[in-house]
Design brief:
Blueprint lengths: L59 H47 L13 H25 L4 H24 L5 E3 L6 H23 L3 H5 L2 H7 L2 H10 L1 E3 L13 H7 L6 H30 L14 H12 L12 H31 L14 E7 L3 H11 L9 E7 L5 H9 L4 E5 L5 H6 L7 E5 L7 H18 L5 E5 L5 H4 L12 E4 H14 L3 H8 L13 H9 L2 E6 L9 H11 L3 E8 L5 E5 L12 E6 L2 H9 L2 H4 L16 H4 L24 E2 L11 H4 L8 E2 L12 H4 L3 H5 L1 E3 L3 E6 L10 H7 L12 E5 L1 H8 L8 E5 L5 H6 L7 E6 L13 H11 L77 E5 L24 H4 L3 E3 L5 H8 L1 H11 L5 H10 L4 E2 L3 H5 L5 E6 L6 H4 L4 H12 L2 E8 L13 E5 L12 E6 L5 H8 L16 E3 L9 H21 L23 H14 L6 E3 L4
Parallel strand pairs: 3-4, 3-6, 4-5, 6-7, 7-8, 11-13, 16-17, 16-19, 17-18, 19-20, 20-21
Antiparallel strand pairs: 1-2, 9-12, 10-11, 10-12, 14-22, 15-27, 23-26, 24-25, 24-26, 27-28
Helix pairs in contact: 1-7, 2-4, 3-4, 8-9, 9-10, 9-11, 12-32, 17-18, 17-27, 17-33, 20-37, 32-33
Length: 1232
């Protein structure tokens, strides 16, 4: 009997002494089972139920022999076949050579007729044979490849069964290494047998498909089959099981990455590499552990298996890990010689693998995208995708406005998609809003990433632009590509994108699925930014008011009576939309507007009106001829979305006698709540069926029909052959002018008296990005101004830069260029900056500087330079930097506007237009008590300026006398509240405002662009320039649209309300009498002080309450109707431009001083002018009736001009004496 040690890995028994006779096993034949535990280390357990070797002889060699015979036998056969084949080939090659030699000598195989014998039959047989073998081989190759569905299923099934066989090995490893088993009763053996039969069939397929049988035989997978499949059949035959080399099945894990690629699970190189490294490491680890488990539980054969030790498989796994990591605790170690020898070599390879694989695995896991998952949509909750320029600043500004509490419950989840992982600050921001914000790393240009964020089910996709990039055109191109990618993936998705340059908007029209009717919008930052600044030239402070209206601001309550208190009360107002109650149906817009303001405490500025053709149009402050229809949508200014609901809930029967607007709630008698729900509240996305009826614009602005307005002689007597407007009739137009004709040298500008003009200081050079000055000029050339009301525009800057911009400006009248620099005081004095209505400071070099704090250095230096300038008072009445207030409608160049009691006129009192209201002259009793004018009126601090900033924090440098904290938000700073600073960052709020209500963008764009139409945008996209058009009734009708104006309260029809009156009374009077809709106040900063102040700064108050008290120095923001007869009245008031100051500051006329050659005639001209001035004053004193051709409700007809007081006459005489010092001024009309 051979002595041996049983592999008691699971439960080692007590070793028996060598002198025990095997016959003792049968001494007690009557006992059922043999006492196995005492012989576990030496013999195989045996029972009567499992027939096995009664002597306990180990048969491990039989299992191993089956594998070795199979491997080496097959290898021998392959080598023998190759040898025979080689010898056969050599023999055949020699025979062929002999036959060829015979053919050469004997002429070859010929037939009787001398022709060659046919060999086609032989070749066909060979081809048929090769074809049959190839077909079988190809069939086997297809079966085992992953190129077909059958092949993929087979490959995956083989891998899954291999893992199953490995699991069975893990289960059997708890049993002895070798034990007797009955195949019919052992369930795991039966399963393992079935698996191995399948592996045998698969091995056959692989063998048939193999091109090189020898290399196939030596493959790892083949070796695994050799040492795992045959032992199973031996186990069935011998009724015993040997754990043996079944651990080699762990090597199949190496193919795990291939299987995942077949299933299209692994797609990226990093993921494939990571799975490869992990699978190789784990399979090597498990395989080595299996070998240690085998030899340590079996012992060394030359030691008669006496030096074995019981170790479980998982203890061996632990041993291999601590060995690879070079830790080696020593609690588990190898005792057998085979085990130790294996460990010596394994340490060399395992340590190298551990040192290289583990760090690389950790690196790949660390570099794995933390935000690489997929979005899971929540039922009943919408989500939007935000992409583009994702930074801490852009995201924080967006979330602050989008998730503002005034929007009520925003049930929208925000999904950010960006290809760069967020930094720590941005990550912290996402975590603070984790309930509504998710971030995923990826690109919208990748369809896979779009699928991850569920773009097909998203409510909208918002694309943010980098406003501070060095190349705006490149940034726009990137965003356009994002739009193309998103639309290509899902054409129906709604997209709202930011664009930097106006001319790039045309490229969006080239995208077939871009549809304005479905809510797609492009927010052009340059168009809106310069439009806001242009409107500030017409109504100072308007840019601040509009910016605050579409931005969500929280109400900050201040108890002290300071200017911040009233400013912040207005800042809390936003723009909302809501359907009007049926109680308003049939009423005119002014009547509804007055009722809503007085009773509901809401301000309605516009409505969505449906014409007879069911076309939707937005009407801003329409006249009495517009009646409210059923289901009309109103545009409101309010502090909360809940307040706007009053307009929908209002019921005349139930709420007519209610004085508290908070009590106006839904009543039982209303009929429209269920029929027409308010779907346009700001907390919901606004979608109106048929709202957008043009290919690339929002709802158009409806004009009044000018043919229905009496006395419209301008249209009736038009000259159809004269092109004064562009082809759409929306803007003043002139033939293209060469830039050389509008260039003024410094000497020429110094000899030209400019007054009431707009000075644009522009920093830029030949390399600077274009900012699109056309968007600044277009609102100033809107056709709802008469030609004489247009302000002359003078650009001061680099000629090289302005040449690049001139192509878009050469069709606008009254534009001049002074080559120079805004930092030169000589250039500024040459353009009479102290007489301008507004000075605009822009820079095209802001985005080329890395340091954010230095981006605005040029604009800040120019602003401080102008404020520090000093001007003398030799111009007299033409000086434009004081605090006086010209009564609306008066000719500012006339003696009527001369200094009265030390109060000189201010440049921009009536908003961009001379409101045709004739008011009484100022009397000594109506002087302004709170404004003290001193010699400081000659300094540059009184020049109206608006400065564009890139970095919000730089606003602290504009005003040296304010107390703004550097960390104060922009909207809370004094320069922004006063309308003297504007930053493009305030436009970020338009993204969320447009998403919730796309009509807001339409309204804002209509107000600030001067009325750009879809036709005009399409024309500019084609020709990049305005096209002149003939004056037809259709184009001239486009002039009849509202414009923003500023109304002075110091004198005129509203003078009685300006001194302590209520704002609500002024609102109702202006609306009833003149159809002017008031919506804000531009008040002196120190107007609340009881002591006189020399400060001329003003701040904006948006939508004051009804009982708000007015002061005489207030300027009122209002929406006024277009006056068709202002030009004719103008002509009647100033008929001689050569004898008097016939042009007001609003006309922006250019005055030129004659040369010295005309000095002999100067005295005569002066005398003539004085006579005409005196005649004109007498005529104005006798005038009783004005504008008799206007409608009754348009403007006042009979305004009495009171006689001049003695002091007034003295002022006029002072004007005459002053005018004698001024050279004759000749009005130079524009060439157009």
């Amino acid at each position: 009997m051979a002595n041996g040690s049983g592999g008691g890995g699971g439960g080692g028994g007590v070793r028996m002494s060598n002198n025990i006779n095997a016959n003792n096993l049968n001494t007690d034949s009557s006992s059922s089972p043999v006492n196995v535990p005492k012989m576990d280390a030496l013999i195989i357990p045996v029972t009567m139920e499992v027939p096995c070797d009664s002597r306990g002889q180990r048969m491990w060699w039989a299992f191993l022999a089956s594998s070795m015979v199979t491997f080496f036998g097959g290898l021998f056969i392959i080598l023998l076949w190759r040898t025979l084949k080689y010898l056969w080939t050599v023999c055949c090659h020699c025979g062929v050579k002999n036959k060829e030699a015979q053919k050469i000598n004997g002429g070859g195989d010929t037939q009787a007729d001398g022709t060659c014998k046919p060999t086609d039959e032989k070749e066909e047989n060979v081809a048929a044979e090769v074809g049959w073998m190839t077909s079988v081989k190809d069939w086997a190759g297809v079966m085992i490849s992953a190129q077909t569905l059958t092949g993929r299923v087979l490959v995956v099934l083989v891998f899954a069964l291999s893992i199953g066989a490995l699991v069975i090995y893990f289960i059997d490893s708890s049993n002895p290494i070798e034990s007797c088993q009955n195949f019919y009763k052992d369930f795991t053996l039966q399963i393992d047998m079935a698996f191995n039969v399948f592996f045998l069939l698969y091995f056959g397929l692989r063998f048939i498909a193999a091109n090189d049988k020898l290399w196939f035989w030596l493959e790892v997978n083949s070796v695994v089959d050799f040492f795992t499949v045959p032992p199973v059949f031996v186990s069935v035959y011998l009724n015993r099981s040997w754990l043996g080399l079944r651990f080699l099945r762990a090597l199949r894990l190496i193919q795990f990455s291939e299987i995942l690629q077949f299933l299209n699970i692994l797609k990226t190189s990093n993921s494939i590499k990571l799975v490869n490294l992990c699978s190789i490491f784990i399979s090597t680890w498990l395989t080595a552990a299996g070998f240690i488990h085998l030899v340590e539980n079996s012992g060394d054969p030359w030691e008669n298996f006496q030096n074995n030790q019981p170790l479980t498989y998982w203890e061996c796994v632990y041993l291999l890990m601590v060995t690879m990591s070079t830790v080696g605790y020593g609690d588990v170690y190898a005792k057998t010689t085979l085990g130790r020898l294996f460990m010596v070599f394994f340490i060399l390879g395992g340590l190298a693998m551990f040192a290289s694989y583990v760090p690389e695995i950790i690196e790949l896991i660390g570099n794995r995208k933390k935000y690489g998952g997929s979005y899971s949509a929540v039922s009943g909750r919408k989500h939007i995708v935000v992409c583009g320029h994702i930074t801490l600043e852009s995201v924080s500004n967006f979330l602050k406005d989008f998730l503002h509490k005034d929007r009520d419950d925003v049930n929208v989840e925000i999904v950010f998609l960006h290809n760069i992982s967020p930094n720590l600050e941005l990550e912290a921001l996402f975590k603070r809003h984790f309930t509504q914000v998710e971030f995923y790393q990826g690109s919208v240009l990748n369809p896979h990433d779009l699928a991850r964020v569920k773009i097909e089910s998203a409510d909208a996709c918002l694309i943010l632009a980098n406003k501070y990039c060095a190349d705006p055109d490149a940034e726009d191109a990137s965003n356009i590509m994002r739009v193309i990618s998103i639309k290509n993936y899902h054409p129906k998705i709604r997209i709202i994108t930011q664009m930097l340059q106006y001319h790039n908007k045309a490229h969006l029209l080239n995208i077939p699925s871009w549809n304005w009717k479905e809510g797609d919008d492009a927010i052009c930052l340059a168009e809106l930014k310069l439009g806001f600044i242009a409107q500030s030239c017409l109504a100072p402070g308007l840019s601040t008011m509009l910016a605050n209206l579409f931005s969500m601001r929280s109400f900050i309550k201040i108890e002290e009576d300071t200017w911040q208190k009233y400013y912040l009360e207005g800042v809390a107002n936003e723009m909302y939309t809501e359907y009007l109650s049926s109680a308003f149906v049939g009423l005119s817009f002014p009547a509804v507007c007055e009722l809503v303001f007085a009773k509901l405490k809401l301000l309605m500025i516009a409505i969505e009106y449906k014409s007879e053709k069911r076309e939707s149009s937005i009407l801003i402050n329409p006249g009495n001829h517009v009646k409210i229809q059923e289901g009309t949508l109103g545009f409101f200014i309010a502090s909360d979305a809940k307040e706007v609901k009053r307009a929908f809930f209002y019921c005349k029967a139930c709420h007519d006698d209610i004085t508290d607007p908070k009590r106006i709630k839904k009543c039982g008698c209303k009929r429209l709540e269920d029929e027409q729900p308010s779907t346009l509240s700001p907390k919901k996305k606004q979608r109106n069926g048929g709202m957008r009826n043009s290919p690339n614009s929002s709802p158009k602005l409806m004009r009044h029909d000018p043919l229905l307005i009496p006395g419209n002689e301008q249209i009736d007597n038009m000259d159809a052959n004269v092109k004064k407007y562009d082809s759409t009739g929306m803007f003043h137009w002139c033939p293209a002018k060469d830039i050389e004709k509008v260039i003024l040298t410094r000497s020429e500008a110094a000899m030209t008296v400019l007054s009431g003009h707009v000075v644009v200081c522009i920093f830029g050079d030949v390399k600077s990005a274009l900012i699109g000055l056309r968007n600044l000029v277009m609102p100033l050339r809107a056709s709802n101004f008469h030609y004489h009301e247009l302000k002359h525009i003078v650009f001061v800057g680099s000629l090289e830069y302005l040449r690049r911009e001139w192509e878009t400006l050469h069709n606008f009248p009254k534009v001049s260029i002074l080559p120079g620099t805004p930092l030169s005081r000589a250039d500024l004095r040459a353009v009479n900056i102290n007489l301008c209505d507004m000075c605009v400071i822009l820079s095209a070099n802001q985005n080329n500087i890395d340091d954010a704090s230095l981006q605005d250095k040029e604009c800040i230096l120019a602003s401080l330079n102008i404020k520090s300038m000093q001007f003398d008072d030799s111009i007299g009445v033409l000086q434009a930097n004081s605090q006086g207030f010209t009564p609306p409608g008066m000719d500012r160049s006339s003696p009527d506007n001369s200094p009265v009691h030390g109060l000189l006129r201010q440049p921009s009192i009536t908003t961009g237009a001379n409101i045709p209201i004739i008011t009484e002259l100022a009397k000594p009793g109506k002087l302004l008590p709170l404004v003290s004018i001193s010699q400081e009126k000659n300094s540059g601090t009184h020049i109206l300026m608006i400065t564009e900033l890139v970095n919000d924090s730089n606003v602290q440098f504009l005003d040296q006398d304010d107390d703004d904290d550097p960390d104060t938000e922009l909207y809370l700073t004094q320069p922004f509240a006063c309308g003297t600073a504007f930053a493009v960052s305030v436009l970020d709020s338009l993204m969320s405002a447009t998403y919730f209500n796309d009509n807001i963008l339409t309204l804002i764009r209509t107000l600030v662009t001067g009325g750009a139409t879809p036709e005009l945008e399409a024309l500019i996209a084609e020709e990049n320039a305005l096209r002149g058009g003939y004056s037809t009734p259709q184009t001239l009708a486009n002039r009849d649209r509202c414009r923003v104006a500023q109304l002075a309260l110091y004198d005129g029809p509203f003078a009685d309300l300006g001194d302590g009156g209520c704002y609500g009374d002024l609102f109702c009077k202006a609306l009833k009498t003149y159809n002017m809709l008031c919506f804000g106040i531009y008040r002196l900063r120190d107007a609340h002080l009881s002591t006189p102040s020399q400060c001329t700064k003003r701040y904006v108050i948006t939508n004051p309450p009804y009982e708000f008290e007015l002061v005489p120095t207030d300027l009122i923001f209002c929406l006024m109707q277009f006056d068709h007869n202002a030009g004719q009245s103008r002509a009647s008031l100033s008929h001689s431009s050569h004898s008097s100051y016939s042009s007001s500051k609003k006309s922006s006329s250019v005055h030129s001083i004659p040369s010295t050659a005309n000095r002999p005639n100067r005295t005569k001209t002066r005398d003539s002018r004085e006579k005409q001035n005196a005649t004109r004053m007498n005529r104005m004193g006798q005038e009783k009736k004005w504008f008799t051709d206007e409608p009754d409700n348009a403007y006042p007809r009979n305004i009495q001009i009171k006689p001049m007081s003695t002091h007034m006459a003295n002022q006029i005489n002072q004007y005459k004496s002053t005018s004698s010092l001024i050279p004759p001024i000749r009005e130079v009309e524009d060439e157009c």
